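Schema walk-through. Below, the input block comes first and the output block second. Nothing else is stored per chain. Lengths vary across the set, and this one has 260 residues.
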Amino acid sequence: MKRIKFFVFASVLFSLISCGNSKETKEEQTETTDNPNNSEMIEHPSENLVDFYASADDWKLSVQFDGDLFFTSKSNNISYVGKVEKKSVAQGADVVSLYSSNGTEVVRVSIDIVDCEENGKRVDIMYRLEKDKNGTDFSGCGFYRGNPKLHDIWAVKQINDEELNPAKFPKDIPHFEINLQNKQFSGFAGCNQVNGMMRFEYNKMYIEPLSSTKMYCAELSDIENKILNILRKGPIIYTLKGTTLILATKEGSITLRKVD
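--- output ---
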C-alpha cells in the first residue's frame, strides 16, 4: 500500500514539474519570436559613417543614404537593418523621404525642415511588419552628418569652367580639408589660410563663418577671392563623383579632386 501511495505521489509531482517546464519553454519561445530578426539588437555604425542619425530614450536611427538603414527599439523589440530602396526630396520643401525593406519588415522615414534642438531636424519614422497593414510610429530630432566620403583633403582643380594652372602657385595649389568629426573646414585658398565650421542638410553644407588670414598676393588674390565668394554664398550644394567633388552656390562652382 505504501508503495502504491508513493508511486501516485511521484506521478503527480512529475506532471506538475513537466507542466511548469512546458509553460516556461512556451514563454521563452514567445519572447524570442517577437523579434522578426530572431536575434539580439543590431549594432549601429559609428556616427562618422552615416549621413543622418536620430535617437530618443527608447529608439535609434542611423542612415546611409546610398547604403543601409538601421533602426532599433528595445521596448518594441525592433532590430532592423535594410537597404535604402527609395529616396525622394519634395521640391521646394527639402523634406526627405526614405523607404527601406528587408523582406520581413518595412521602415519609412521622413526628415522635415522643421528645426529642433541645435542644428537638428524633426524626423518621423514608421515601422511595420511586411505582412501587416498598420505599423508603429516614432518621432524625434535627427542630425545630418554629411556624406562620410567628404571626410578627406581636396585640391581645387577647376573654378567654374576654368581649369586651374598649378604653375601660378609658388607655394601650393588651393586645397581644403573637410573634417566631419569636428565639423571643421580648413585649408589654403591660394594666398591665405582659411577656417570655418560646417553644418549639413541633405546634399548641402554651410560654412559659418569662413574666415581667412589677410595677406595680399596680387593675381593669386583674385583667384582666391573667386573661391571664397563661392564658398561664402551658401548653401553649398555638394556632388560626389568618385574622387571628384563639386561645390556649387549661386556664385558659381568649384571642382576639386581627392588628394591621395
